Amino acid sequence: MRIGIGYDIHKLVSGRDLILGGVKIPNELGLLGHSDADVLIHAIIDAIFGAAALRDIGYHYPDTDEKYKNANSMELLKDACIKLNDTGYKIVNIDSNIICQKPKLAKYIDLMRENIAKTLGIEINQISIKAKTNENMDATGELKAIQAQAVVLIDD
Ligand code: ZN
Q1: Which domains, ranges and CATH numbers included, belong to the chain?
Q2: Do 60 and 49 meet the contact criterion of CB atoms below 8 Å apart?
Q3: How far is CA 121 from CA 14, 99, 104, 114, 116, in A?
């Protein structure tokens, strides 16, 4: 068994969709990035790569590559899962945090879990997503960014 950790942060701006866990969430601000900027999925991908010592998300899907402009992060997650399975490891479980001051995410969490489970070919009970605010502090609390953290356990 091996464990991996992932972290990501994206800036909140107007004129962009807010996509978290593959769910488009109605909001006046969205996340800025080269891809669709799905901060939760990026943290999970980095945790998967970290667990298998497969470097990081920027190594596999560089943001300087036009191929990944507006990329659907769920497709990157699927590809990361294939790279993991190629090493002989499978995901045991994922735990994660989304740190987001606004909007409230509770009603979208199960949909995100379903999306991720489907993409990774695992059960919904193997995926945990917790939503927190930043108590109005720092960039995230001031609605300037959303952060995500993830840990992934893998086994052969
Ligand atoms: Zn990212």
Answers
A1: 2-155 (3.30.1330.50)
A2: yes
A3: 34, 26, 28, 10, 8
- pLDDT (0 to 100) of residue 115: 98
The DSSP line for 76-132 is HHHHHHHHHHHTT-EEEEEEEEEE-SSS--GGGHHHHHHHHHHHHTS-GGGEEEEEE
pLDDT score, position 106: 97
Instruction: Give pTM, 2 decimals.
Output: 0.98
**From the CA of 81, how far away is ligand 1's center (Å)?**
17
Which residues have their alpha-adjacent CB atom under 5 A from ion ligand 1?
A: 8, 42
Q: How far does the centroid of ligand 1 lie from the alpha carbon of residue 73, in Å? A: 9
Phi then psi for residue 102, to 5 deg, are: -155, 145
Predicted local distance difference test score (pLDDT) of residue 31: 98
